[in-house]
Write a structure and sequence with these properties.
Oligomer: single chain
Structural class: mainly beta
Helix content: 10-25%
Strand content: 35-45%
Number of strands: 14
Distance between the termini: 32 Å
Bound molecules: calcium ion
Radius of gyration: 24 Å
Length: about 300
């Protein structure tokens, strides 16, 4: 009887391990096959927190962020993807986060997530050149929508979170040029600072040609919100993400109350198969572990147990 219980526990262990989630980089295309997905590593992109600058606690606001995928981490290796002006395809994401200012000091701000959406697109670049999320094109007026077009391959709903993000303003330093990537294309100064965000998303749509498994969840980490832009080209004249160009309020970035805050950002996304809690297997697992414990105590660990008693 005890042996049966211990065998049951061993048989249940695979259920406790993270399940593999399959991903096919080019969906129905022939270049790639489905492999076990671990994570997406996005290229440096950008975020725009709309109307939040210097607003007091309790103020709701929306943050938009956009990234192009640069590396796919599979269980058997990493697959680098073409980015920028390189084809033949691109995978991009557009993120909408609704938040509220939770607390702030002169140099530190924390935000609470109310919700939001993550949409991921596969674009075969068969549309106009302006559909290409090439940051070098971002200041010629063509960026608008480049990160949010193509075929929707995954959509997730951001879960509310008490403390979701933070931003620290570097104290005692003056303003700098916001666009320090190549030429200054924006002509805007900025305060200096950095922040981060972390949230989970419940996938409410996945395209089976790219994600053959039905139920997936993800954890998204925006590892940095940072000024100035030092390693990627900010979009400006062409607008950012969904609906409009940055509004600096006529002053430097991060200075005029009620204006947008524009920052360079980096992000990655971890994927996992959805784990639906089922009490019954957990009870069985507990019973199995108890059985294994009793069996080992009565057999394998007898000598050790006696020795410990002597030492004590
Ligand atoms: Ca394929
Ligand atoms: Ca695109
Ligand atoms: Ca530039």
């Amino acid at each position: 009887m005890k042996k049966i219980a211990s065998l049951t526990s061993l048989a249940l262990f695979p259920l406790a391990a993270p399940a593999a989630l399959l991903f096919d980089i080019d969906g129905p295309g022939d270049l790639y096959e489905p492999r076990e997905l671990r994570a997406f590593d996005w290229a440096v992109g950008e975020s725009l927190a709309q109307g939040v600058v210097l607003e007091p606690p309790g103020t709701p606001f929306r943050t938009l962020a956009q990234f192009e995928l640069s590396d796919v981490l599979f269980s058997d290796g990493t697959e680098p993807l073409p980015i920028g002006s390189d084809g033949p395809f691109e995978i991009t994401t557009v993120i909408t986060i609704d938040s509220v200012v939770q607390a702030r000091t002169d140099t530190f701000i924390v935000y609470t997530f109310l919700g939001g959406d993550v949409d991921i697109y596969y674009d075969d670049l068969s549309g106009p050149a302006s559909d290409n999320a090439d940051n070098l094109n971002t200041n010629n007026g063509n960026l608008f929508g480049a990160f949010g077009n193509g075929e929707l391959i995954l959509s997730a709903e951001i879960q509310p979170m008490l403390i979701g993000a933070n931003f620290t303003r570097s104290p005692d330093v003056g303003l700098e040029t916001l666009d320090q990537f190549g030429a200054d294309d924006l002509g805007v100064d900025t305060i200096l600072g950095f922040g981060a965000a972390n949230f989970t998303g419940e996938v409410d749509f996945s395209n089976p040609a790219w994600f053959p498994d039905e139920d997936a969840d993800l954890t998204m980490t925006i590892t940095t919100f940072e000024t100035p832009f030092a390693s990627s080209e900010p979009s400006g004249n062409g607008g950012i993400v969904v609906d409009r160009a940055p509004d600096y309020g006529g002053g430097p970035n991060g200075v005029i109350q009620g204006s947008d805050f524009h920052s360079e950002s980096d992000a990655n996304t971890d994927f996992r198969e959805r784990q639906i809690p089922e009490p019954k297997p957990l009870v069985l697992l507990a019973a199995g572990l108890l059985g294994l414990f009793l069996w080992k105590r009565n057999h394998g660990n007898n000598n050790k147990t006696r020795r410990n008693r002597v030492n004590a």
